[in-house]
Amino acid sequence: MTATAAPEHLDRTVDDVARRAQEAFDGLSRTAPGVRAAALRDAAATLADHADELVAIAQDETGLSEARLRGELKRTQVQLRLFAHVVADGTYLDVRLDEADPDFVLGPRPDLRRTLWPVGPVLNFAASNFPFAFSVAGGDTAAALTAGCPVIVKAHPGHPRLSERVAQLVAAALQAAGLPEFTLQLVTSQDEGVALVEHPAVRAAAFTGSQRVGQLLAARAAARPDPIPFFGELGSVNPVLVTEQALQERAGDLLAAYVASVSGSAGQLCTKPGFLLVPEGTEYDDAVVAAAAQVPEHRLLNPSIADGYARRVAEALAVDGVRVVHPGSSRHDDSGAGPGQTWVTPTFVAVPLDLLRRAGDALLDEVFGPFSVVVEYPEGADLAAVVAELFPGNLTLTLHLGEHEAAEAQAALLTHLARHAGRILLGGWPTGVAVTPAMQHGGPWPATTTDGTSVGTAAIGRFLRGVTFQDAPQELLPPPLRDDNPWGVPRTVAARGDSLGW
Amino acid sequence: MTATAAPEHLDRTVDDVARRAQEAFDGLSRTAPGVRAAALRDAAATLADHADELVAIAQDETGLSEARLRGELKRTQVQLRLFAHVVADGTYLDVRLDEADPDFVLGPRPDLRRTLWPVGPVLNFAASNFPFAFSVAGGDTAAALTAGCPVIVKAHPGHPRLSERVAQLVAAALQAAGLPEFTLQLVTSQDEGVALVEHPAVRAAAFTGSQRVGQLLAARAAARPDPIPFFGELGSVNPVLVTEQALQERAGDLLAAYVASVSGSAGQLCTKPGFLLVPEGTEYDDAVVAAAAQVPEHRLLNPSIADGYARRVAEALAVDGVRVVHPGSSRHDDSGAGPGQTWVTPTFVAVPLDLLRRAGDALLDEVFGPFSVVVEYPEGADLAAVVAELFPGNLTLTLHLGEHEAAEAQAALLTHLARHAGRILLGGWPTGVAVTPAMQHGGPWPATTTDGTSVGTAAIGRFLRGVTFQDAPQELLPPPLRDDNPWGVPRTVAARGDSLGW
After folding, report:
1. End-to-end distance of chain A based on CA atoms, in angstroms?
2. I need a surface site. Which of A79, A474, B187, B345 has the fewest CB within 10 A?
3. CA of B425 to nearest chain A CA: how many angstroms apart?
4. Which residues pair with A470 in a beta bridge?
């Protein structure tokens, strides 16, 4: 149980937490968009006001660099403000009004008014690798609050003090801005998280983490007497496909950028390129080694991630025929208090396509950390088929073409790639996810368990459901459905007499 | 295996069916909206052209009345034409364009273009009770085709000849209109249906039927190596809540309409009101008996449904304290060929609220057929709490108020009711679902397994997923994302320099 300064948190049970979220839902679902938007902006402002303190805690707990953490904290503020924009705009409600029509083609039509509406309390399992942007006040929380759902965050054990402090600051800011008490709550133990997935008051869960834990929690959500949606982001290897021509034009830049994308934040990113597919005969060793040798040691986030990384790298290296291009270093520092820290540099290996196919999960499963595989494909290989067979579900797929190579054949290839990832990049690198309306961060399993995006404004859709009111008097309708439209939301009207295509 | 006239169907395997759907997907996802819209209208036209033949087969196979079946066939045509309108309009794609922005607040932003895109082949389990509107060319099929997904229909065994004939006619119409061969396919055996839920090429499933079968299939979909969404509509009891004042004003009309809503199509509708909640002391016996006595015998759809109905009614009547208001009749006619037909009139029973609570599933579970329970609630009962406890997940909830009773208290009640159903009616009866943009036919479990609606234009959302293209050259983008917008779809643009609330 978390120990905050607030006395009401000290002896609460999981049931108390869920009940309080349920009570907060009553008020939160009725707050005007202006109030909710202002509260989100206030939450962003309080993070900005405490940036120095928060970044210092985060550095200590995660080993991520100050520059990275300041950037991530800014991103977290941008997310909150972007959602303030979304809630004030109201398009996300997808309001549809069908006017009553006594002459409708199928017989008299009643007055029907449909809006998307918050699902209820949302449970959000925070991630290890983004202590701000995918944690207590991160994207999932911002999306759920915007939708009108109270949020219970299960803190990640990798950054407990930061989680506690952010929860205090943001919960206070939301309440001061007029949102109900307990709109945002924090729990810290695994047992609490599991119990809450099964609690009747919790209506949806979001999760960013490992495939193993995600599948266990998803199974619990599905086995409830009343199953709830479980939006899990479970893993992605983000293959980058490079053509012969692209390499001829810019091999040097491309390989240096590859190493940088694998190494940033010690490869502890869900969009790290785990595979680079190049034509057989490509010379890449020197460029990869030269770039990798320049990468300084980086601390891994926590002992659990360090253990997992060591295990997966060992598994991959044990596959017969894997060739090491650049061996990374690993150094354990137990000079401080606690379990010590692991510092690493990136490891690159290479295999022919056939070997990758034979090796199976030992190479194909995600390695969370600065490790990547160069795959040499034979001339004429059908890259669409390779992706369908070996990389069926990803957050991203990237294709590097030569300057004048974009043509009909690639258009067909893109159509196929789009079946296996949520974001298709033409050039560039998948790390560095823009937080914008058009972002898609989610893809076929195991990238995500259920369709949806956890980055960008479309993320709100996961926490809404359709509700239609039939023949309701004005005074009983939710505000976005009233004739006078007090929230000023955009609405689509099917007018009396409109044939709708009939 | 289905035996159609087309020779290529004769010796196909489940894998052939899935593979053909996958191949059709290539072409179908690229068809221009105008082509898809025309094909949907042609499908509607061919149903109209063959109305006499189709209605005659349906009458024979289901026992539903000619008037009901002609109405349902017209509804099915309207659904197809309504979706032709949707695909031509293009709003459903939710296209979002973020212009590249070197000065974006979080650092240079790439060019991002997001559209919703068809998930791939969809498996649609047809329903017993709507041989047209929730079957081969019904709402789920229309929504999936509109999205650009090939459809494999698992025919319901209750109307095999009708399913076969509709599939022939509609598949031919779609192909003649320029859609790929095998855009619509039919399978008929249960084994094929189960095998297809687990086939890698199938990317989503829709189901309308019993809770038991739906849960089995949902578990299969979830247990795949790559779980797929399963949109099941599993059951609903559609409580109708009546206030003292409503009864004082119009008890006669209200009770007669209740009996009519329970009895129409022999109660074999997913929106049949299974419970009528009235204040203790209400006199309703005479009105219910008078109306019920006028209801003619109606054939139940098939022997399996007749068996289930008899079993559930017996279970309900066996509950100690249940009072029979109007005993229905049941007559088995085995004069014809085959297993015979069961003809019934409606049964109404009554219980005090406390007894309903104690009886549990024996009374609370859906009874599929013309059976309904009048529940007497004590003065001052908290109806929101009653719904939350006893009726947590429904397609519809209906509230009958007195003329001047709409007020603040009821607004709060409605907010609570909206958590437990997809459609909230103020007056009127839940049977008779309008097919329009603002309809919601889906609700909390077990009404539906996964949020979504299976009636109305929003139904298309179940068969789409978000895909974002980053920095793609014009010639490689899907048409709705190109600068020249060849499909003319509405798009939301985040312009360079737009702060998005920052």
Report:
1. 59
2. A474
3. 5
4. A112, B425
Query: Are residues A434 and B110, on separate chains, in Cβ contact within 8 Å?
Result: yes
8 Å CB contact of A470 and B407: no
Chain A positions in Cβ-Cβ contact with residue B472 (cut-off 8 Å) = 414, 424, 426
Crossing angle of the two packed helices B244-263 and B285-293, in degrees rounded to 10: 20
* Alpha carbons B452 and B399: distance in angstroms, whole number: 23
| pLDDT confidence band for B2 (50 / 70 / 90) | very low
Q: Which class is A7-234+453-464 in CATH?
A: alpha beta
Residue B317 has pLDDT above 80, yes or no: yes
Write the single-letter amino acid at A79. Answer: Q
How much is the CA Rg of chain A, to the nearest whole Å? 25
- Beta-bridged to residue A210, according to DSSP, are none
Q: Contacts of residue B149 in chain A, CB cutoff 8 Å?
A: none
Q: What is the 3-state secondary structure (H, E, C) of A286-322?
A: HHHHHHHHCCCCEECCCHHHHHHHHHHHHHHHCCCCC
Residues of chain B with CATH 3.40.605.10: 7-234+453-464
Pick from A392, A494, A502: which is nearest to B81 by CB? A502
| Minimal CA separation from B415 to chain A, in Å | 8
Residues of chain B with CATH 3.40.309.10: 240-426
Give the model's pLDDT for residue B493. Answer: 96
ipTM: 0.95
- The burial class, CB within 10 Å (0-12 / 13-18 / 19+), for A239 is buried
Q: Are A451 and A442 in contact, with CB atoms under 8 Å apart?
A: yes
Q: Which of B71, B414, B501 sits opposite A82 (nearest CB)?
A: B501
- Which one of A192, A233, A366, A376 is the catalytic residue? A233
pLDDT, tens digit, for every residue of B70-125? 999 999 999 999 999 999 999 999 999 999 999 999 999 999 999 999 999 999 99
Tokens of B217: 């299939």
By the 10 Å C-beta count (0-12 exposed, 13-18 middle, 19+ buried), B45 is classed as middle
Residue B11's pLDDT is 60
Average pLDDT of chain B, as a whole number? 94
Q: Which chain B positions have a beta carbon within 8 Å of A114's beta carbon?
A: 437-440, 456, 458
Q: Which member of B72, B164, B192, B270 is catalytic?
A: B270
Helix (H) or strand (E) holding B261: helix B244-263
Q: Tell the CATH superfamily of the A240-426 domain.
A: Aldehyde Dehydrogenase; Chain A, domain 2 (3.40.309.10)
Active site residue A270: yes
How much is the pTM?
A: 0.95
Q: Say yes or no for a CB contact (<8 Å) between B470 and A423.
A: yes
Question: What's the CA gap between B156 and B158, in Å, rounded?
Answer: 5
- 3-class SS of residue B104: coil
Q: Is the confidence at residue B488, as pLDDT, over 90?
A: yes
Residues counted in chain B: 502
Q: Which amino acid, residue B412?
A: A
End-to-end Cα spacing for chain B: 59
DSSP H helical ranges for B360-490: 361-364, 383-390, 408-417
